């Protein structure tokens, strides 16, 4: 009887000293997820900027045609992309300067709210100049933004539809 008790006590002590753990499994899972995360696609700064460029052009044609709802939409799209750059590309110097476009975008938004074409054109020019100032400050002076002269999006109507 003592022998059985002793054996049971040994098993009990062994099971207490080596509790079942999922630590190894959890670490393996963490390592796997970190590897997947490291290989997940993330747009580069250029892709974000191409998005801004497209919305900049669309903003111009929407405002020029006094399609104020579309113009407002395009300003919001630019703001979202600016936020995305700051969120996903925070390690880039360019990201730290993105806020410099906010006052210009606010002026464009104000012109849209007032539905004032002359003020819109002026504030859009200011926005364009601010983009170029940012490019200059980040040593991308070779990338010059201008007011569009040809509609790039022939598959979209910019005039207000009744």
| Radius of gyration, CA atoms, in whole angstroms | 29 Å
How many individual helices?
7
SSE pattern, N- to C-terminal: HHHHHHH
Strand content: under 5%
Shape: elongated
Derived structural class: mainly alpha
Low-confidence spans: none
What is the mean pLDDT?
Answer: 89
Number of strands: 0
The main sheet comes to: none
Distance between the termini: 97 Å
In which range does the helix fraction lie?
55-70%
Question: Can you put this structure into words, describing what you see?
Answer:
With 162 residues, this protein is mainly α. The chain contains seven helices and no strands. It has helices spanning 2-17, 23-38, 45-64, 68-88, 93-97, 102-114, 117-137. It is elongated, with a radius of gyration of 29 Å. The mean pLDDT is 89.
SSE map:
Blueprint: H1 2-17, H2 23-38, H3 45-64, H4 68-88, H5 93-97, H6 102-114, H7 117-137
Helix pairs in contact: 3-4, 3-7, 4-6, 6-7
Q: Would you kindly provide a brief summary of this structure?
A:
The protein has 162 residues and is an all-alpha fold.
């Amino acid at each position: 009887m003592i022998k059985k008790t002793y054996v049971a006590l040994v098993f009990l002590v062994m099971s207490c000293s080596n509790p079942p753990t999922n630590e190894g499994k959890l670490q393996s899972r963490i390592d796997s997820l970190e590897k997947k995360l490291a290989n997940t696609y993330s747009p580069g700064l250029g892709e974000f900027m191409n998005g801004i460029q497209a919305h900049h052009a669309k903003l111009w044609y929407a405002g020029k045609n006094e399609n104020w709802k579309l113009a407002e939409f395009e300003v919001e799209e630019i703001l979202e992309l600016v936020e995305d750059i700051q969120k996903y590309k925070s390690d880039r110097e360019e990201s730290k300067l993105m806020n410099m476009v906010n006052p210009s975008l606010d002026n464009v938004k104000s012109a849209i709210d007032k539905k004032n074409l002359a003020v819109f054109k002026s504030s859009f020019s200011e926005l364009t100049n601010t983009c170029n100032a940012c490019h200059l400050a980040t040593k991308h002076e070779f990338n010059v933004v201008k007011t569009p002269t040809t509609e790039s999006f022939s598959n979209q109507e910019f005039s207000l539809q009744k």
